[in-house]
Task: structure prediction
Amino acid sequence: QVQLEESGGGLVQAGGSLRLSCTASGRLFSNSNLSWLRQAPGKGREFAAAITWSGVSTNVADSVQGRFIISRDNTTNTVILQMNALKVEDTAVYYCNNGFDWGRGTQVTVSS
Result:
């Protein structure tokens, strides 16, 4: 089993930026596609961004297109979600997922 740990969340004003990290343990990290999902209060978990195992291909949700960038470094077992031009509606707990395992999430709160 792979353990995923998210970090980097916090409180930021609208228009600001945050950089989330997902660090994984396990020797299969470099073979795994990885995703960021988020769950806003009172809502279900939704897709935010994904990256293939090689890092060559990425995909982001329409709602964050042009603002969020996903990247990875397989030498450090880390996936990064750079979030720019944050909006109040980006407020959520952000989770890292490899298709099987989940981290505990990191809270992102955007104030107006």
Notes: Strands lie at 4-7, 10-13, 18-24, 34-39, 45-51, 58-60, 68-73, 78-83, 92-97, 106-111. The chain has a mean pLDDT of 94. The longest strand covers residues 18-24. DSSP finds no helices and ten strands in the chain.
